[in-house]
Write a structure and sequence with these properties.
Elements: E1 2-10, E2 13-18, E3 21-29, H1 32-41, E4 47-51, H2 52-57, H3 63-72, E5 77-80, H4 86-95, E6 99-102, H5 104-108, H6 110-119, E7 124-131, E8 134-137, E9 142-147, H7 148-154, E10 162-167, H8 179-188, E11 193-196, H9 202-208, E12 218-221, H10 223-226, H11 232-246
Parallel strand pairs: 1-4, 1-12, 4-5, 5-6, 6-7, 7-10, 10-11, 11-12
Antiparallel strand pairs: 1-2, 2-3, 7-8, 8-9
Helix pairs in contact: 1-3
């Protein structure tokens, strides 16, 4: 399992939202580059970065902050938020982003996602954010009539490298991951699934390390890491111990 620490960017700062509400943002660090380095120093192997302003604007807004992150860490970085065109994707990959996450465009223009997968193999993930079981788009401001499973199945043979599944009703409020819905999605497709939204404590890590969750690629943690509810050393020790058992 991979634990992806999250850096959510709003107005150039590292923040966490409650339930995806931009008006309920808590600033945890005004130096995204330093935050990225801190996560690497704590032993994390990946970074999950979201341009929150970009998700609403439909184009990259926090580019300078993302550049600072890339220059401060050697860890692979996956980036989402406002990436809607092939030119956007190519630009970020050329700057050193390892994997681009496509969300709204996956609903609005699935053919673009498929074309991106052909053009940039292994570099495209799909972000599926669900509210009440239905996919939300435009920075979670609109809810579509698609279920998460319906959307995921559209890309079953497209070459998508991962699906990041977020339960919006749990995001940023430390309710614990929605394991049943995440596993339902993971079992419905062959694409690796990453759990997101609500990871609250070491109990969630223990749950993720149980055999039925072995199907998942990993999980994303935000607020629990920032406010100290999740201890990085204890977390990575558990994950590495589990890996050694498997290998």
């Amino acid at each position: 399992m991979i634990l992806f620490p999250a850096i959510d960017l709003k107005d150039g700062q590292c923040v966490r939202l409650k339930l995806g509400d931009m008006d309920q943002a808590t600033v945890f660090n005004d130096n995204p580059g330093a935050q990225a380095k801190s996560f690497q120093d704590q032993g994390f192997e990946w970074l999950h970065v979201v341009d929150l302003n970009g998700a609403f604007a439909g184009e990259s807004v926090n580019g300078a902050a993302v550049d600072a992150i890339l220059s401060s860490t050697s860890n692979p970085v996956q980036l989402g938020g406002g990436i809607r065109t092939l030119d956007h994707i190519e630009s970020w990959l050329s700057k050193g982003i390892t994997r681009v996450i496509l969300g709204t465009v996956a609903v609005r223009d699935p053919d673009l996602v498929k074309e991106a997968c052909r053009k940039f193999p292994g570099k495209i993930a799909v972000g599926i954010d669900a509210k009440g079981g239905y996919v939300a788009v435009e920075g979670w401001a609109e809810t579509s009539e698609l279920t998460a499973v319906d959307l995921a199945r559209r890309f079953e043979d497209a070459g998508v490298s991962a699906i990041i599944y977020t339960d919006i009703d749990r995001d940023g409020v430390l309710k614990g991951l929605n394991i049943p819905s995440t596993l339902e999605l993971a079992r419905a497709v062959s694409i690796p699934v990453i759990a997101s939204g609500g990871l609250a404590s070491i109990d969630d890590i223990h749950r993720l390390l149980k055999p039925d969750c072995a199907i998942l690629e990993g999980a994303i943690s935000g607020r629990a890491l920032y406010d100290g509810r999740l201890d990085p050393a204890e977390t990575m020790s558990l994950i590495l111990a589990q890996r050694s058992k498997v290998s």
